[in-house]
What does this fold into?
Amino acid sequence: MTANHEMSNADMNTNQGSPKPDKIVVFDTTLRDGEQSPGASMTVSEKIKVAELLEEMGVDIIEAGFAIASEGDFQAVSEIAKRVKQSVVCSLSRAQFPDIDRAAEALKSAERKRIHTFIATSPLHMRVKLQMTPEEVHQAVIDSVTRARNHVDDVEWSCEDGSRSEHDFLCRCIESAITAGATTINIPDTVGYAYPEEFADLIRMIRNRVPNIDKAIISVHCHNDLGLAVSNSLRAVEAGARQVECTINGIGERAGNAAMEEIVMAIRTRGDVLPVETRIATEHITRASRLVSAITGFAVQPNKAIVGVNAFQHEAGIHQDGMLKDAGTYEIMRPEDVGLVRSNLVMGKHSGKHAFRKKLEELGYELGDNALKDAFIRFKALADKKKEIFDEDLVALVDDEIAAANQRIKVISLEVACGSRPTAVAAIELDIDGNVQTAKAEGSGPVDATFNAIMKLVPHQATLALFQIHAVTEGTDAQAEVTVRLEEDGKTVVGNAAETDTILGAARAYVTALNKLLTKREKSAPATLSA
Ligand code: KIV
Ligand code: ZN
It folds into this structure.
């Protein structure tokens, strides 16, 4: 059976009988599953920024967090619920009444709200993790969905580890969830184990066997452990799924989730094989990717589909020749469709604020007035130190600026003495919650001395799990992009900074990571800075 044949026979949950292509509901979980990935913590204000952009992009459902998980998550869901008007705002909850009630409380002010409740249905998860019998799980499905429906009309139920669940039991749980009032049934491939055709068969099986399936939308939620999350999601859509769960840049637990930009652009580009549509305004994709990358500190790999810096670059002579004759020779999408503008606007020492703003817009950034002013000051300082300013320099600079906004600890100055002397000495000045404090420390080298000095002002137990430096561009005056990963009590945080002075970059990356650690601590209890 071809995909098209399946579509016309699909008895789809949306747009039934309409000649128009079916709409795929885009459910973004960057702020929930994405934020669960180690190191990707976001503050409430950062989450609000991302949610506002997701709404502007036309995302149908924004999963804003897991309200019961922490005070920070609750606050993020409720603040997003207050602000977002067009998209449905959703909170995750386990199949427990306190979770569901907390989700409802956080969503109180949302104009359009959804509770997403889940429980595992695979034999392994039920036996080992939940230590519940299938009968108990089945009852929990009914009770949790009923409870959620008492709060809201829009309830999504997920069978965690659905792709490894027994079919009879899975169908029974789905049927009962729909009878209890679930309006969306989500089938997660929680561990990224499914194979595309197998996952499509699972969706077809559910559509064929669950008697009341026409009363709900089938959703899929695919993890990327085998690099198949996007393929599995698209095959599921071919088989009749009408909601796809995804994240910006594919961030998420372990290897991540299906990347929204890849799903959306595959659907847009290959409407000939998959005649469906999304409501996403794709020209915001680059901006969203950059924002999420800057906030989480998770760099996007250069060759990443759609949003990698090389995704629309043509290096080989033969390709360049073809491109000059007709862009269609090597380009299947137009860069402007994802918000990338080709330009020859060269930035340097003499560029003004207007050109700077325009250049940032072309690179996919839209900064507020204050952020633009700060970024411009840093750009001027960089232009004084560096002969040529490349787009990569500006991307590093602005990402750095976004990550540094609203931090409790900031580096004011750093002086280091190092070289052939027995020990290096660093003197650092930090602004901690508005108080300027200084410290001096020795170390085996400049980085060690700098980190020791910071440690004197911000004592902590975290271990340095990663310290990495790479040059943003070529040349000895290139900016160094420094990444620091800290681990404390099972929590991982990542800090990035870009500077022409590598040691100053290291100090700032370290401080950014410490700021994130404080945010993580604040989520469970108000943080105290002992300095
Ligand atoms: O991967 C998963 O199973 C999940 C569920 C909570 C939907 O994230
Ligand atoms: Zn997940």
User: Anything to note?
Assistant: The chain has four domains: 22-296, 310-338, 341-403, 406-522. Residues 341-403 form one domain. The chain has a mean pLDDT of 90.
